[in-house]
């Protein structure tokens, strides 16, 4: 029964994220917000909304391990599974923006997460946690990144005055309905994930890193594969990197600002794997002249993820 309700909750989350994004985009277009800003803000954050809802609800309910594990698992799933699957379908080109801005900043962000969650390395007897001050710093960094990206993204020569495909009142219905789906679906999904962990006799952190993270990463998987099949392969990798940055700075930042997040069952090895995933992309960007992630590397990504999951659950 837990599995069925878990799927129902996930369905509500994904549907809520879709309708919220569609409604918000329609409202933004109605008030003539440039489309490139819509893409960088509403659409980009929209694919991370499931992780945001689950992590914030987890933080509010004192389930820190799920809040952090959800982000850790999502980032690993994004790089190793989504990146691996996309590279198997079609080699992923590395754009100039990926190499000069996105991948280096993603690597720095993963190092920031490692430093924020290893207090005991620098102060004997300290508890490993993400404090409220660290959460605020993460949020400020995310806002600064969005500001920098918007400032340095070329505007189209001519803004097209496209009218939204839905009316304003329907867009508002989409937004309200999407929010309701996210809130109720997130609450149901979280409760059933905890119940499932207890019934299976495994830790909540393992459920968060595997099942919860995989479920909330479905929007990234869908958008990346669709971008790839539509011939926009450069967008697939950008979506993965952007989502990982948002997961750490926006989602963990917002969650820790609400309440400090203790590590629970999340280990340094789990956090180190997030750093490794960013390091793999960093090495690929700066050591290979082909400037693309090919099928062989995609297979390697999937193998690394399979090995990690095996070590996690054995």
Could you walk me through the main structural features you see in this protein, from its secondary elements to its overall organization?
The protein has 314 residues and is mainly α. It is 79% helix and 3% strand. It is built from 13 helices and 4 strands. The protein has helices at residues 2-30, 35-46, 49-60, 64-89, 96-116, 119-122, 132-152, 168-200, 204-216, 218-229, 233-258, 268-287, 295-313, and strands spanning 92-93, 129-130, 261-262, 292-293. The strands form 2 sheets. It has a two-stranded antiparallel ribbon. A two-stranded antiparallel sheet has the order 2-3. Helix 5 runs parallel beside helix 11.
Helical run tally: 13
The coarse overall form would be: globular
Largest sheet: 2 strands, antiparallel
Strand content: under 5%
Mean pLDDT: 83
Radius of gyration: 19 Å
The percent of residues in helical segments reads: over 70%
SSE diagram, text form:
Blueprint: H1 2-30, H2 35-46, H3 49-60, H4 64-89, E1 92-93, H5 96-116, H6 119-122, E2 129-130, H7 132-152, H8 168-200, H9 204-216, H10 218-229, H11 233-258, E3 261-262, H12 268-287, E4 292-293, H13 295-313
Antiparallel strand pairs: 1-4, 2-3
Helix pairs in contact: 1-2, 1-8, 3-4, 3-8, 3-11, 4-9, 4-10, 4-11, 4-12, 4-13, 5-11, 5-12, 7-11, 8-9, 10-11
């Amino acid at each position: 029964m837990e599995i069925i309700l878990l799927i129902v909750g996930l369905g509500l989350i994904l549907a809520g994220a879709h309708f919220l994004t569609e409604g918000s985009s329609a409202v933004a277009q109605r008030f003539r917000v440039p489309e490139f800003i819509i893409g960088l803000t509403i659409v980009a954050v929209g694919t991370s909304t499931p992780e945001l809802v689950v992590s914030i609800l987890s933080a509010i309910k004192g389930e820190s391990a799920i809040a952090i594990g959800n982000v850790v698992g999502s980032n690993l799933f994004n790089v190793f599974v989504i990146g691996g699957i996309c590279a198997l379908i079609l080699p992923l080109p590395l754009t100039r923006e990926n190499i000069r801005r996105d991948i280096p900043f993603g690597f720095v962000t993963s190092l920031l997460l490692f430093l924020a969650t290893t207090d005991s390395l620098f102060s004997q007897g300290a508890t490993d946690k993400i404090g409220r001050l660290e959460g605020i710093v993460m949020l400020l960094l995310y806002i600064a990144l969005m500001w920098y990206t918007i400032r340095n993204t070329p505007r189209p020569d001519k803004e097209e005055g496209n009218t939204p495909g839905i009316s304003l009142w329907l867009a508002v219905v989409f937004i309200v309905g999407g929010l309701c789906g996210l809130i109720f679906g997130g609450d149901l999904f979280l409760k059933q994930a905890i119940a499932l962990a207890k019934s299976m006799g495994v830790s909540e952190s393992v459920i968060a890193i595997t099942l919860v993270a995989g479920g909330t990463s479905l929007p990234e998987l869908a958008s990346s594969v669709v971008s790839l099949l539509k011939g926009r392969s450069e967008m697939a990798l950008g979506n993965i990197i952007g989502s990982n940055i948002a997961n750490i700075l926006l989602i963990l930042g917002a969650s820790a600002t609400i309440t400090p997040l203790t590590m629970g069952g999340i280990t340094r090895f789990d956090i180190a794997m997030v750093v490794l995933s960013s390091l793999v992309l960093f090495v690929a960007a700066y050591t290979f002249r082909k400037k693309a992630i090919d099928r062989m590397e995609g297979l390697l990504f999937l193998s690394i993820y399979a090995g990690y999951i095996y070590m996690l659950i054995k």
